[in-house]
Specification:
Layout: E1 3-7, H1 11-22, E2 26-31, H2 36-41, E3 44-47, H3 53-57, E4 64-67, H4 70-74, H5 77-85, E5 89-90, H6 94-101, H7 103-112, E6 121-124, H8 127-137, E7 142-146, E8 156-157, H9 165-179, E9 182-186, E10 191-199, E11 204-206, E12 211-217, E13 221-232, H10 243-263, E14 270-279, E15 282-289, H11 296-301, H12 308-316, E16 329-337, E17 349-350, E18 361-364, E19 367-370, E20 373-376, E21 382-388, H13 391-402, E22 409-410
Parallel strand pairs: 1-2, 1-4, 2-3, 4-5
Antiparallel strand pairs: 6-9, 7-8, 7-9, 10-11, 10-14, 12-13, 13-16, 14-15, 16-21, 16-22, 17-20, 18-21, 19-20
Bound molecules: glycine.
Length: about 425
Amino acid sequence: MSKVLIVGNGAREHAIAKTVHRFGHEIYAVMDKLNPGIAKISKNYLICKLSEFEKITSFESVDLAIIGPEAPLSIGIVDYLEEHLEIPVLGPNKMNARIESSKAFCRTLLDENQIEGNPQFCVCTSLDDVKAFLKDLGSIEVAVKPDVLTGGKGVKVYGDHLNTEEEILTYAEERLKSDGLVVIEEKLVGQEFTLQAFTDGTHFYVMPLVRDYKRAYDGDKGPNTGSMGSYSLEDHTLPYLSETDIENAKKIIDKTLKALKKENDTPYKGVLYGQFIKTEKGVFLLEFNSRFGDPEAMNVLSLLKTDLVDITFSMSEKNLIRPEFETLATVCVYLVPEGYPIKPKADKKIDVPNENEINAELFYASVEQRKDGIYTSKSRAIAVLGKAQSVSQARELAYKDINKITGALYYRSDIAAEVAVEGN
Ligand code: GLY
């Protein structure tokens, strides 16, 4: 039994905590807001800002730490904990976390190391650079990406959020003013997929592939969200990907890890999350993240048969063990406040059944526990996950139980609908 510090308080961290708990370890949670699901299975917890590293190091004596969100990674929580506590930490150090925290760093790294997967792009430091790139591209079909972390809400794409050259330039200028640079990329059209890997910087093992749904409403309509749900198949592939597509994504991960090792003093360790897109021209990288995805963490961690603590120890010993996953399908559906993401109804009481009244698994995201019950905030509330022999059965489990949670909430009714086969 190990004592495990878990940093973060979303549904992803609830999934991490449940996984650690399942293997019999003690959890010491650090959260900036109380997550009732994490608190329930923790031996102790501390509420503080995730940037208050000194408070975190003096909280409890632990054997290892697992960092959930990108923000503390981007400001060096791993460097700090490793130095002050001398324990293994699952997560990359600050230099390596730039793969997510700086979009310019990521694109430039791939470019300089001739790694496939980059679209045409430009790291622009002036509006003239932006105009010149649009001219060279001969099109305004682009994505405008802030260089910095924006909680998934900063990327604006032609046709979705920006419709004219003027709108592109206005948004690019806004980012130039706040960040000093902005990344403009050719817009990629195709089918997205998530491939996450555990890595010690030299070796890596991929997790089951996941398809995630970012748009708010059925039929992939409406504004972008943190994600409304996701699914994974029992054979860990996705129906629209060939073996070559998957191999190409793995090659991009492999070459990126090698490039990071060359670039930084220490190798990248932790989870490397690749968001890819299969286009007519092949597989491209949309972005890398330096942590588990949300909701993808719920899909893969609920299948994990290998102790996450053993994986973390093996990572820090640079002798990564091969993780095993159950050959089952998963479907995860998010319940979000009515009006989310534009005008979410916060402060509304929701009723959640007891665990023995449901067959699916629940993961608390952004809710507030008060004396008289659980209340919504402005962000996603609860994720419901079904796990079964087939995606249809997993879907049925998730949707049956989602209706048992009541309040001013809504969810997408078509997560995994296109792959579910009736009667299967
Ligand atoms: N599912 C998207 C993310 O975790 O960033």
